[in-house]
């Protein structure tokens, strides 16, 4: 509020049973409906459609996408904005694998899966970014719209395809090291099916880009 940057926070909730909507409604009362926009959906319809749903209500020139479970700390947002201005980037991506970035709260298995997925992607796709599977990013609104029209993946592969398609279309990408903290409540959705889906998606991108 004291940065001089005009902003709005759009909260997309897909019928989650954890009280997200009730908290968002309280925030809306405190900060006003011009700053906090709660845009719920009746059921879980997927990450990609949540992006499209949120974009319909976004009035700014830039969109920051982040998880609302506190694994993405808002303290990094000013750094994203500074980085974008510094290089006039189309996308600024938070990276856990560069500079002083890191992951906290994951067990060894989860770290190995994430590192392995990222390494495979780097070798096969050479995307020009160090963290392909993270979702904490800043986009120019029109760039995000164009990428959403091109991307077809779902689940774990979706974030990776966004960066690969961005490179393919000639958009510029900057990076900001971030600390990712695993959620305190709830469980990770990453399981065997997601890993198989990721590998299929990776090979599809390799074959089509």
From TrEMBL:
GO molecular function, a single term: metal ion binding
Domain of life: Eukaryota
Subcellular location: Endoplasmic reticulum
EC number(s) stated in the UniProt entry for this protein: 2.4.1.83
Cellular component terms (Gene Ontology): endoplasmic reticulum membrane
Manganese as UniProt keyword: yes
Pathway: Protein modification; protein glycosylation
Primary location: endoplasmic reticulum
Coiled coil: none
Catalyzed reactions: a di-trans,poly-cis-dolichyl phosphate + GDP-alpha-D-mannose = a di-trans,poly-cis-dolichyl beta-D-mannosyl phosphate + GDP
Residues in Glycosyltransferase 2-like domain copies: 6-147
Cofactor: Mg(2+); Mn(2+); Ca(2+)
Keywords associated with the record: Endoplasmic reticulum, Glycosyltransferase, Magnesium, Manganese, Metal-binding, Transferase
GO BP annotation list: dolichol-linked oligosaccharide biosynthetic process; GPI anchor biosynthetic process; protein O-linked glycosylation via mannose
InterPro entries tied to this protein: DPM1-like, Glyco_trans_2-like, Nucleotide-diphossugar_trans
Matches recorded under SUPFAM superfamilies: Nucleotide-diphospho-sugar transferases
Protein family membership: Belongs to the glycosyltransferase 2 family.
PANTHER family xrefs: DOLICHOL-PHOSPHATE MANNOSYLTRANSFERASE SUBUNIT 1 (PTHR43398:SF1)
Quaternary structure annotation from Swiss-Prot or TrEMBL: Component of the dolichol-phosphate mannose (DPM) synthase complex.
Function: Transfers mannose from GDP-mannose to dolichol monophosphate to form dolichol phosphate mannose (Dol-P-Man) which is the mannosyl donor in pathways leading to N-glycosylation, glycosyl phosphatidylinositol membrane anchoring, and O-mannosylation of proteins; catalytic subunit of the dolichol-phosphate mannose (DPM) synthase complex.
Record-given protein name: Dolichol-phosphate mannosyltransferase subunit 1
Organism: Ptilonorhynchus violaceus (Satin bowerbird)
Gene name as annotated: Dpm1
């Amino acid at each position: 509020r004291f940065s001089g940057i005009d902003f709005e926070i759009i909260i997309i909730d897909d019928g989650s049973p954890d009280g997200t909507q009730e908290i968002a409604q309280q925030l809306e009362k405190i900060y006003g409906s011009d700053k906090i926009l709660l845009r719920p959906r009746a059921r879980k319809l997927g990450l990609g459609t949540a992006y499209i749903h949120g974009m319909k209500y976004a009035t700014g020139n830039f969109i920051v996408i982040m998880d609302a479970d506190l694994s993405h700390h808002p303290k990094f947002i000013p750094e994203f904005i500074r980085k974008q201005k510094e290089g006039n980037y189309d996308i600024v991506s938070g990276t856990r694998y560069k500079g002083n970035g890191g992951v906290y709260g994951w067990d060894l298995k989860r770290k190995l899966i994430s590192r392995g997925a990222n390494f495979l992607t780097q070798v096969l796709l050479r995307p020009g970014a160090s963290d392909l599977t993270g979702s904490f990013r800043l986009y120019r609104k029109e760039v995000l719209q164009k990428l959403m029209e091109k991307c077809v993946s779902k689940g774990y592969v979706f974030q990776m395809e966004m960066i690969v398609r961005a490179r393919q279309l000639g958009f510029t990408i900057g990076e900001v090291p971030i600390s990712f903290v695993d959620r305190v409540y709830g469980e990770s959705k990453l399981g065997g099916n997601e890993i198989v889906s990721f590998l299929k998606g990776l090979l599809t991108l390799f074959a089509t880009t």
